[in-house]
What does this fold into?
Amino acid sequence: MTIADRNRIGRAAIAAAGVLVGYLAFARARQLRWGATEDEASGVLPGDRILADPDLVATRAITIGAPPDAVWPWLVQLGQARGGFYTYDLLENLAGCRIRNADRIVPEWQHIAVGDEVRLHPKVALTVTEVNPGLALVLRGAVPVGDAPPPYDFTWAFVVAERLDGATNLVVRERYAYTHKWAALLVEPVTVISFLMSQKMLRGIRDRAERAHLSRPRPASVD
It folds into this structure.
């Protein structure tokens, strides 16, 4: 290896270290609480008791200009072979997820109960652990690593809260509890991908709920 090659490798290593430091110092905290207020990020949400001492928590949120009853139906039909996740279906399908994101409420998908499965992929599913209709949906599980079990436990909570102005705050929380010391090496990059998909999902739910709410028939006025 020549001196020039060594210098190039050294510069690349320094650049990579700089990117990592920059991410840890600035971007990581922001992406882990995208859209969430301080109260939302630090408050207790449904599902938190399942993993009482998580190693990593991400809380993300969005305000939707529609009431909770216009938002909840889109959450109920989440899942592969159901309504999808309202995100980048092209990217999801490159990973073999076979997802088609719905643009309407489908009556056959409007029932969900504890013990049901919500699939991320034809071969990967999370289990419904809590349902409070109109308010909260909590899923639990993890993605295996090849043939090996996942090195972490995971919960995914969707919480709907009505605002004083009649709009809705939708808060989504991910909690990871590591079962192997090296799990962080897998989970940290996953949270970056999760951020990209989650912010698109939240916007997708918002746009669909607002559009459907605006198209609802209004009660006839009484003179």
User: Anything to note?
Assistant: The chain has a mean pLDDT of 87. The longest helix spans residues 183-214. The beta strands are 56-64, 117-121, 124-132, 136-140, 152-162, 168-178. Residues 146 and 182 are 16 Å apart (CA to CA).
